[in-house]
Design brief:
Ribosomal Protein L9, domain 1; 2 domains; 8-stranded mixed sheet; 3-stranded antiparallel sheet; about 25% strand
Length: about 350
């Protein structure tokens, strides 16, 4: 076990008692979530909610019957939300390294099974470092989610390699985390409070891109991107030279080029995903109003025709003729608020 692992275990297992103890107001309010998820959080036991330290709600739609793994599941809030979304025919696996958090999550398995009206549990919690998911079979998971935990891992390249290994072809990684515009100094990365507050291990955006590309995740899509400010008086002088953002991003285990290229494809969303019937938002550059044809890159065409979303889309076109770079291959700037448009939070990890 590394020193960072030990510091994180102590911080989340002993130092923090509830999410009120976080110095950077890391947990987002429930009104930052999509409306359809809020009542599902309301079904989760209050002790689990109080000990949950995530940032937002990195849970995509269309999960009925899916196998979902939550990296760094903590007290289990997202897992129990996912349990309701995948239904009795689906499966949710929570992975965490902190015994105290796992104890809380496991304590309420029977409670939630009964509350959700299931005949048997569809959820389990296992102890692992997220760099080593050796008990999870290759190509066995439809979706991997993570709520501000990957930044806590000292060997992020191993985390992403394990994610790629366990995802099925066409599977999705969908996670929220803290990113930075530069690599942090060794001193900051070793500070247990800065690490525990999800800042010391913030992903440098270019290192993230390189790690993902090296594994086969050639494209990563930014769903949301908000400026994260640090207002704690003890931490601010140490970190004010760094620009942090809280981002929700997604990537697919699908063959893709490393840029968005134009082959003349177009796609139409049929509105069949109940929780987002009016429009499907892939990322900040791609929104599909139900019933309308939208021009898409070759990469996006592959995502919409090969992932679990394929039943909700009609995709037309081929790769026979290349028309140059696709017009939406650009970066959208971070918004000024973290998690919710009207939020005045000082952190979002």
């Amino acid at each position: 076990m590394s020193q960072i692992h030990e510091d994180v275990q102590e911080y989340y297992g002993e130092t923090l008692k509830t999410n009120e103890d976080l110095l950077t107001s890391a947990c987002c309010p429930t009104d930052a979530m999509p409306a359809y998820l809020r009542p599902l959080v309301g079904n989760v036991h209050e002790e689990i909610v109080s000990k949950f330290y995530g940032c937002g709600s990195p849970i995509p739609p269309k999960l009925d019957g899916m196998t979902v793994l939550d990296l760094g599941s903590g007290s289990g809030q997202d897992c129990y939300v996912l349990s309701q979304l995948v239904g009795e025919s689906g499966q949710v696996i929570g992975v965490d390294m902190t015994d105290q958090q796992l104890d809380v999550a496991r304590k309420y398995i029977d409670y939630h099974t009964e509350k959700f009206g299931f005949a048997k549990p569809n959820i389990s919690f296992v102890k692992h470092f997220i760099e080593d998911l050796s008990s999870i079979e290759d190509a066995s998971v439809d979706l991997v989610v993570s709520n501000c935990v990957i930044n806590l891992a000292p060997e992020k390249d191993k985390v992403f390699a394990e994610i790629y290994r366990i995802l099925k072809p066409g599977g999705e990684l969908y996670f929220a985390d803290v990113f930075a515009d530069r690599r942090l100094s060794a001193e900051l990365k070793a500070d247990p409070v800065i690490v525990g507050e999800c800042l010391g291990g913030a992903l440098y955006v270019e290192d993230y891109r390189r790690q993902m590309s090296g594994l086969g995740f050639n494209m990563s899509y930014t769903v949301s991107n908000s400026v994260l400010s640090v207002e704690d008086e003890a931490l601010k002088p140490k970190l004010e030279h760094i620009n942090f953002t809280s981002q929700t991003v997604r990537a697919f285990k699908i063959e893709a080029e490393d840029r968005e290229e134009d082959y003349g494809h177009k796609a139409r969303y049929d509105g069949s995903i109940a929780e987002i019937a009016d429009a499907f938002v892939l990322d900040q550059n791609h929104s599909f109003a139900a019933g309308e044809w939208v021009s898409v890159s070759g990469n996006v065409a592959n995502i919409l025709s090969q992932s679990r979303y394929k039943d909700a889309f009609e995709v037309e076109g081929s790769f026979e003729a290349h028309h140059g770079g696709f017009a939406s291959d650009e970066v959208v700037a971070a918004s000024e608020s973290c998690c919710a448009p009207a939020a005045a939070t000082t952190g979002c990890c």
